[in-house]
Amino acid sequence: MTQVNGGPGAGAPPVLVDDEPDLLRDQFRQLLRYPRLIAGGVLLGLLGGAWLGYSTSDTYVATSDVVLRVPTEDPFNPSIAVEKTLDMNTERQAATSRRTAERAADALDFPGDPANLVTGLQVTNPPKSQVLRFSYTTADPELSARRANALVAAYLADRREQTEQTRDTMIKGLQAQLAPIARQHDELARELDGRTGADAEADFAVKANLLNRITELSNRISKLKALDVTPGKVIRTATPPTSSDGPGWALSLGLGGAVGIALGLLMAWVRLVFDPAARSEGDVARALRAPVLGSLPRTRETDPLLTEDREESPLAEEYRSIAYRLAYDQRFADRRRLLVAAPRGSSRTAAAVAVNLAASFAETGKRVLIVEAELRQPSLEGQLRAREIGRPAWTHDGDGDGWPSGRRLVVDAGESGSFDLVPGARVRNVARALTSPETSRLVEEADDPNVTVIVLTPPVFAYADALALVDRVDGVLVVCDPRGVHRSQLARLRDLITGAGGTVLGTVMHRGQRGKGGREGRKAAKAAKAARPGKSAKGTRGVKGAHGQPRGAVPRPAPDGGYGRHGDDGGYGGRTGGPGTGPGTGRHDDPSTTMALRTVTPPDDQP
């Protein structure tokens, strides 16, 4: 791991960046996330190996070797470079030509087109040699040997015939030149017979020249007639092979399996390259440029937010380790102001992280305050065992009815202690409420060394609520399912947070949530529906409680121990002012928020 600067802030710890070996190991582990592609590649390789084994199991190859030579007067003359007078590529093409096929077809009485005879022929030239290797493949070993030998003989016969034709043509040409010269010489000899003197000397010189020319042409004709036109020598005659030429079933399947594994890994790698989702901790850490502080297992939607039996729960230990890592982060340890948010989707897991971190900090003796900055669909109060306490002192000098100065609850975390909660509430202007002086004063409670403030906001990409608060906290804790968010979205999330003046302290990964289905799910839904509090008398939607602020979608605990809306009789009035149906049974029946309704279990000390 390589360390780089963690940010512009003083005392910021370095961020660990993966080295090349770590990146390679991480990528290889990510390839194993696509077992279907790898298995598909292996299956294709095995099928290819099986086809190779089947197609070559009954093929036989007969081979014959021929050493070529050039026509020469003296084959033992060392000054003649045979390799310079032979073009082996040309000879290979001549060996597979139609002329050779027609000669071989006549010798074999081949019934079809002679061009089909060379379909099973392969002619090769071993490196640095004048050898042509004829290999013929058929399903019959005897037929392979017979055809290979016939093609060799046809090639050599055709090459010899071409050489003889060339030689005869040259001899005819030389003889055509020699005949007139010989006649002229004979005529001149008859004229000079008996002549002497100075006038005959010129004719004797011409006669001598003609004789020299006759001698030269005669010598060339003699050499051509004595020329050895043997085209080559067969050094290995094709014999019927005793075994098939195929690699065999075992080797074919082995090769197919190896190629299939390589193909499967290649397909998985291509899928990984073009997969926009963050599939591992390394992807998330590199996209956010922040460490992964913890990884949560998959939970059920019906599980409580606050982990039960915190002394024996592995999930609670995971939350404690996240809290301890945050506690020793210098960017967070001084003032302890933390914002928890998810990039997109549901905020339930982010709420569970905030609540359990609060319980973990409370175990260390700190006073913890959770501020639910969810002002559109607040639901945190109804999912915790909470009771209302007095409002902060600074809310008495002004209007204390609106959020966040309206109410404060204390949540019982069992043996971990308790922590305070400022529940969310519906407001007319969310942006004004989040940027109000009361919200700033609430977050500033963390100036006390013994106080930790945790702010829970809606998903960052859904609303800009989190960006309105990031400059008032010491860092942001991102809670995400890596399979449900793209790497580009995480990078954009980091840019949004840093652009708003915030810092990403780390990430908590989770694997999503499981819902209930089938008969069990239907039974749970019916039980939850039966346990819902009753509606108001008019069946209309309630507006305000005792303090006058808009109420959320979830029943809230009353000061007297009931779970009403703090109306006069435990219920609350509807739009027409109708009374509630009884003590502790009021509910907010807003159709836009009924999805957030949950069954609330009263505390042990409540009736």
Quick gist of this model?
The protein has helices spanning 20-31, 35-55, 82-85, 88-95, 98-108, 141-191, 201-225, 249-273, 281-288, 314-327, 330-333, 348-363, 430-434, 437-443, 487-499, 518-530; strands at 2-4, 15-17, 60-68, 121-124, 131-138, 232-236, 292-296, 299-300, 337-341, 367-372, 386-389, 408-412, 418-422, 451-456, 475-480, 504-510, 513-514. With 607 residues, it is an alpha/beta fold. The radius of gyration is 49 Å and the shape is rod-shaped.
Helix proportion: 25-40%
Uncertain stretches of 5 or more adjacent residues:
3-17, 393-399, 516-522, 531-607
Task: Give the number of DSSP strands.
Answer: 17
Task: Specify the number of helices.
Answer: 16
Largest sheet: 9 strands, mixed
**What class would the helix/strand composition place it in?**
alpha/beta
**Widest sheet: strand order?**
7-16-15-9-14-10-13-12-11
Averaging pLDDT over every residue, what do you get? Answer: 77
Sheet-strand content, in percent, reads 5-15%
- Which shape, going by the Cα principal axes? rod-shaped
Whole-angstrom Rg: 49 Å
| Head-to-tail CA distance between termini | 56 Å
Write the layout of secondary structure elements.
Elements: E1 2-4, E2 15-17, H1 20-31, H2 35-55, E3 60-68, H3 82-85, H4 88-95, H5 98-108, E4 121-124, E5 131-138, H6 141-191, H7 201-225, E6 232-236, H8 249-273, H9 281-288, E7 292-296, E8 299-300, H10 314-327, H11 330-333, E9 337-341, H12 348-363, E10 367-372, E11 386-389, E12 408-412, E13 418-422, H13 430-434, H14 437-443, E14 451-456, E15 475-480, H15 487-499, E16 504-510, E17 513-514, H16 518-530
Parallel strand pairs: 7-16, 8-17, 9-14, 9-15, 10-13, 10-14, 15-16
Antiparallel strand pairs: 1-2, 3-5, 3-6, 4-5, 11-12, 12-13
